[in-house]
Amino acid sequence: MSNNLKGNMIIAQSGGPTVVINQSLVGAVIEAKKHKQIKQIYGSLNGIDGILKERFIDLKKENLAILKKVAFTPCAALGSVRKKPTSEDCVEIFKILQKYDIRYFFYIGGNDSAETANILNENAKKEGYEFRCFHIPKTIDNDLRENDHTPGYGSAAKFVAMAVMGNNLDNKSLPGVKIDVIMGRHAGFLVAAAALGKKRDEDGPHLIYFPEKPFSKEAFLGDVEKVYSKYGRCLVAVSEGISNKEGEPIISQFINETDTHGNVQLSGTGALGDLLSELVKTKLNIGRVRADTFGYLQRSFPGIYSEVDAKEAYEVGEIAVKKAVLEGLDGSIAIKRKQVKSYSVFYEPVPLNKVAKHTRSMPSKFINRAGNYVTQSFIDYALPLIGKLPEVEFLKGVPVDNKK
Amino acid sequence: MSNNLKGNMIIAQSGGPTVVINQSLVGAVIEAKKHKQIKQIYGSLNGIDGILKERFIDLKKENLAILKKVAFTPCAALGSVRKKPTSEDCVEIFKILQKYDIRYFFYIGGNDSAETANILNENAKKEGYEFRCFHIPKTIDNDLRENDHTPGYGSAAKFVAMAVMGNNLDNKSLPGVKIDVIMGRHAGFLVAAAALGKKRDEDGPHLIYFPEKPFSKEAFLGDVEKVYSKYGRCLVAVSEGISNKEGEPIISQFINETDTHGNVQLSGTGALGDLLSELVKTKLNIGRVRADTFGYLQRSFPGIYSEVDAKEAYEVGEIAVKKAVLEGLDGSIAIKRKQVKSYSVFYEPVPLNKVAKHTRSMPSKFINRAGNYVTQSFIDYALPLIGKLPEVEFLKGVPVDNKK
After folding, report:
1. A38-44 and A56-58 beta bridge pairing
2. Per-domain boundaries in chain A
3. Do A75 and B170 touch (CB under 8 A)?
4. Alpha helix stretches (DSSP H) within B128-188
């Protein structure tokens, strides 16, 4: 299992950032410094775009104390990109990799980034270029196949849980219908995290809508009306990716922008929240209806992260380097959960094509039958991933007898 | 200066919540328990609406340990309301106050709430009803007259500073134009806080727009273009209250909802962000343009608060009770800053009509001449109010020489 491939290493980041994506970068760089097979450690700026433009930085020249602080700084320290290489790009990239004698390639990202790594790796094999290639997982969507969960999810889920706890208190203060739009293109894991801070039955979120279940405006209005008549208020968490029966995102009626992977823009707009808000206002005749779209705060808010998520993000970077250097492997590092009582994980290299391109959805056991809330099974799954939530407390509220 | 008025006390919360509004409630209740002049301590649910409906809870029956946790729980523990009493309401309220022998009245809120307290107090005088009445300040907008700053502002400003720090990192990762819409109906204090986490020249926010300066679409587009061509990206913080030369809110082109104080709905919609985003996309032909509206997160996010803000919020509650009970005063408690080198404040009772109804704006020395950023004077003013921000760090980024 030893590996004698010597050369330079390059590492890059791709796709939407997370709060812990630099943990993986720093974990990989610190590990790489230990191995004599790796000579130079290059960071490519803005993913494969940086390779094509030969925009590299020398990561061996970074001070260790700074690196450790960068690990706790949200978003891609090397810059990111959303770009799928064309076959011409691949030809060009190989010329550049050869020129710089790059033999170790690490790409931190989600399913699209795994696809990019896979394309490059397949091309390397075809061209007979000796090359170790690892995808290092990250996505707040938690939708990578083969993984129990992905780095970035725990911290984003913690942010969402906290934000919704606050929104519940706000909605209790000034009752009405409140709609929170939460990220998640195809998978409902993040919107589901809205439930993780709920303390009492009457607390919100009262309803959660997932991309996995066809969204019906009629059912939605019926649900909201029911909760509103019971509690005099209603807090709803909605995934930005909710789609109709035909699988078309509800938001695509408003937005037409797509990236080179063919993804429709879902975030960075309040359109979906405003549409749903308008619907409740007009159809249910409820006065106070508000919508907030949490947007990029979910993946970039400094200071709020899950300890376990930060640790795992660091370790997948570290282990990808070990597997490439010590065992001469290619692939992606998957996080698997041990089937034991207290939370514990192990890491497993898996083939690139098993995580590339296609995503996974929430298991159906995580969504209730009505398709409008999570199950206890989801809570048990997700709680260990987010760490400690802030404590909130309520007055006992002993009523005063009315005087005559 | 002694006061022998004996009777029951009522306390209520009104207007938009803050993260520290319960500090004031708990400060007042714990103080009130010490004074024999105060017999029962009633909490009215949902402000004056709770008085009109006689929905009171017995705050003496709350456990001290729970109260102390409630103090750190965001949003109005008693529930809030947006309601200006009519003259009929006032007649009704006095009947109820007399029936419950309420002689001490404390109303936690902003300028609209001070107005409500003022109306009640004027009516009490007119009717010859012996009555001590205090407004306890709170508003994330920081726009109460007579105050150096208001409880709730420091914590909301900290949230905004942190969110924008994260957005700067996100925007650096995936460059483009990013617009963050921040609360603040008439005053730019909160949007100005976007600058408080900025570390280096190239960091965002690059531009800040205030309700105090007429917003011109042409000037805005020119500013964005200039920043974008310099840094390849641009992060903009915009107040929800930006208005045209005629003083009409830009957002009022889209939204028509108003409350009983005559305020147009500005929050709980992504419309303004989306409008500005569309403008940049179409007029400047920039591909990646995103907008986030921070919305209610700014006033309700649990766990993020400024220590100094929490302490001051507690103390204004405590001192209002002292001034009413020990000195027999009516009024509002204003926070004044001592003119000394290190940050320090004192509290001063001021007449209700001096803080009621009208708000104050940002002093012009806090806004730069171009009207698109804050001055150092603002930074010096605001930094002591928000406490410690999380540390973020950047790679040194030593470029690798290009190989031939």
Report:
1. antiparallel
2. 7-151+305-354, 155-303+361-386
3. yes
4. 153-173
